[in-house]
User: What shape does this take?
Amino acid sequence: MSGEVNLETLLNNMRPVLNTGDYVFCNISTLDKIDLTKIIGSFKEDEGITIILSKAYADTLGLEYSSIMSWITLQVHSSLEAVGLTAAFSSILAKNNISCNVVAGFYHDHLFVIKEDGDKSMELLFNIKS
Assistant: This one.
């Protein structure tokens, strides 16, 4: 199943969910001491490996991070080829001075916003219409 590409359908069926917990982005040089089952996401960059994980697990490992985030999952199965979805939600969040870090999974888009902006972000996302 390749996912939805129609922007109107995507916006009308996003069904954002605010995941429980606090999440952080950390930069590490190796995954050797990391339980891979506890990583929410990762990306290899020239400067190191960025991992997204629960704040609690990062604290257990003594990892540094700069911000505590809320994690919002859009429950609509968006295609990786869909055009405009990221622009639509990032635009409304930006207009409300909310920083948003987006990770696209195969099935869903995942938004990480500063913890204090989680509830406001949910309100804004629920009110987006095509």
